[in-house]
Amino acid sequence: MKNFAGLLEKLLYQPARNGKLALLVDYLNGTPDPDRGYALAALCGDLVLDEVKPGLLRGLIEERADPILFRLSYDFVGDLSETIALMWEPGEPAEAPELAQVVEAMRAMSKAEARRRLPHWLDALDGTGRWALLKLVTGALRVGVSTGLAKQALSQWSGVAQTEIEEVWHGFAPPYLPLFAWLSGAAARPSANDALCFHSPMLAHPIDDTDFEKLDPTEFAAEWKWDGIRVQTKARAGAGARLFSRSGDEISNAFPDLLDPPLLMGGLDGELVALEPGKSGLEAVASFSTLQQRLNRKTVSAAMLKRIPVAIIAYDLLFAADASGENWTDVRPLKFQERRRLLEDAVAKARDPRLLLSPLLDFESWDSLAAQRASSAAHPSVEGVMLKRKASAYVAGRPKGEWFKWKRDAHLLDCVVMYAQRGHGKRASLYSDYTFGLWSGEALLPVGKAYFGFTDAELAQLDRFVRQNTVQKFGPVREVVHAPDDGLVLEIAFEGVQVSARHKSGYAMRFPRINRIRRDKRPAEADQLEALAKLAR
Amino acid sequence: MRPQDLAVLRPEGLFCPPGDFFIDPLRPAARAVITHGHSDHARAGHDEVICTEPTAAIMQARLGEGAAGRFHALRYGEKIRIGEVEVTLAPAGHVLGSAQVLLEWRGLRIVFSGDYKRDPDPTCAAFEPIRCHVFITEATFGLPVFRHPPPGDEVDKLRLSMARAPERWHVIGAYALGKAQRLVAEMRATGDERAVLMHGAAMKICELYKNFGVKLGALEPASAESTKSSAPGLVICPPSALQDRWSQKFGDAVRGMASGWMQIKGRARQRNVELPLILSDHADWPDLQQTILDTGAEDIWITHGQEDALMRWCETRGLCARPLNLHGYEGEEAE
């Protein structure tokens, strides 16, 4: 645990990507199995230890320390694990646990056992160790390591190309022993192609206005960018079917209606969308807020299955199955055009209302595509256009120059700041979360909350505004002045609107962020709620 | 005779009516007792300033001619009478010359701590607890999350990093008065005699410390030439210079910061430092408690910092505590 804790702390303070890489390679060199595999899994968010919830940790510290002092400390520090790690007064010295010991014990433990065991571990560790342990068991590491960076470190450490690692990465569970056996030269490369596992998807770069001059429209296919969730399904006759989100989380249990029976045999990349009941085809695709009711569920009721049917809009074929459905061919190395033909055949053959084909857009020039993109605003489930090079193989990650996303421009509205709350982590003790509202007659009604989109300098300005203009405090929340002639206007950019029972205004913005601070505007000049309501229709 | 007859809060700062003077006032006053030389406590423009000799020298060096009309320097433990009040200065252990102020009047004893710490510091006299009826304490680090590690551990962290990355300069942000000198002295205490490069703002104070007999060893101005003439080593600068163009001459340096706030990881990340050193010139949570107990006071007035938690602790101990809202001391940011 000591080495892992040291690694986490150094990663946290290391701003440079190369510096982080060096730290990871160092750690892989000096750490045996299975610790290195568990460490890597923890950093990539691939290690799910879900028995320890914040409430349990609060309970532990409140048994040891004055709850009032704990609350004051937590409010100041802004991070639960760190607050507890710092406040914890060690008891009897004991032998500190190793990382693998903690992970394996946590996986086997019930919630009650975890509650009994954690204090002993905390007693045995030093401050950094306690912090790392609590970060590990709550699954919120946040030390700036992405899965991509971890794979790059593995590649640098082993000398094996990253694309080769991508290929097999998802075939194994932590601590990835076969993967490490291969990378350290002790075994041949394992195969993940035949398993019902997730494969890293191919991703697109946002397109820039200047990119178009360099790109030849005849070399590209275009399709809508649908506003659902990107998914991958795999199914094999006799072996079952599974569904994954784009980050590789398995979401099969939430969508039995897509897996039983399977849509088609093989491996498919597509967009999961909700449908209007009783309708069919792409005309039936419902808004994201409808789909959202089916997301983040562990199970789903029969009533829900009926009320909100779902479908997959197929983008791409990864593995093609033969007629038996048992044998697969990896078609990812083929060109997009060739995969597309196989996909069209497979979807046509399936004749399944749950499986739709993403239509290709007809265009001669970038201008004609731009016109279609602009007119797509009428369709609430389309958020822009995807461009895919016709000759592109399906490659894990975000290869340069192959796929592009061309989103519709965001909506903008001027809103008034109403409440602010302190941030967490790097922004602890700064007021960095803002609730803002729009005018409805004489009153301002909250429509959303944003906590990014600004620079550090702007954050300092906003923080100062909050501190100097507080009218009331409710625990960690400050109400700031928001009168027609006094207050702060923010230009908020957002992707869409949904009807929300949680907000008094009745609406909530999707992906709101602060676009600009409008010091030049008085709150009275901010927008009306009506402007938002129009977008929801 | 009540404590508030001897010390009372006014907009200018803490006032002592029977002596007709302020302690660390925020605005120019006819007579002021100054605890130490940090700019939020030692402001310019008082007619008469009563303080230790090093504090007078620091004020003159930092504030220039207009520092004060005249200085009345006191030794630690030397008692003088101002109006009806007897005033004594005692070591506070914060920075060179820092003092607590003991007020005695008709048998009532009030101690104003100023900023203080209990950890040993090679650059200044150690804090001495004084028995009193009312103890007015700072509370900069008044939360149970603040338990400063031994200073030696943090200096070892710095030395280890320098040994591991000898090809990179180590640029450490430290307050120009106090922390910069202490960091050098702590390095010297480990037997490290390598020259330290010092930013101009701190160099002036280093010279002053040397004049008062503090041994800081070889110091060089941190100039562009020095980066070429010597092997990468330790550079000390004010925190503001850390992310400034000034520090770019040291190239891909390991940037660090020496401050008690570095205990909080979010604070360290706000500073964008790779090497946070938890080195504080204020009392941590256990030392604030110990000091309150050491004074024997039953009436605790808490000035700037995290007063809520310390108040709460006093209440659980059966001590009478109240906040003294001295706005204007930098509290959260000053060290």
Commentary on this structure:
The complex is a heterodimer of chains A (about 525) and B (about 325). With about 525 residues, chain A is of the alpha+beta class. Chain A is about 35% helix and about 25% strand. Chain A folds into 3 domains: about 1-140, DNA ligase, ATP-dependent, N-terminal domain (DNA ligase i, domain 1, Orthogonal Bundle); about 205-405, 2-Layer Sandwich (D-amino Acid Aminotransferase, Chain A, domain 1), CATH 3.30.470; about 410-535, Nucleic acid-binding proteins (OB fold (Dihydrolipoamide Acetyltransferase, E2P), Beta Barrel). In chain A, the strands form 4 sheets. In chain A, strands 11, 12, 13, 14, 15, 16 and 19 form a 7-stranded antiparallel β-sheet that branches. The longest helix of chain A has 15 residues, at about 335-350. The radius of gyration of chain A is 26 Å and the shape is globular. The model of chain B is unreliable at about 330-335 (pLDDT under 50). Chain B has about 325 residues and is of the alpha/beta class. Chain B is globular and about 65 Å long. In chain B, the strands form 3 sheets. In chain B, strands 7-8-9-10-11-18-19 form a 7-stranded mixed β-sheet, covered by helices on one side. The interface between A and B is medium-sized, with 29 and 24 residues.
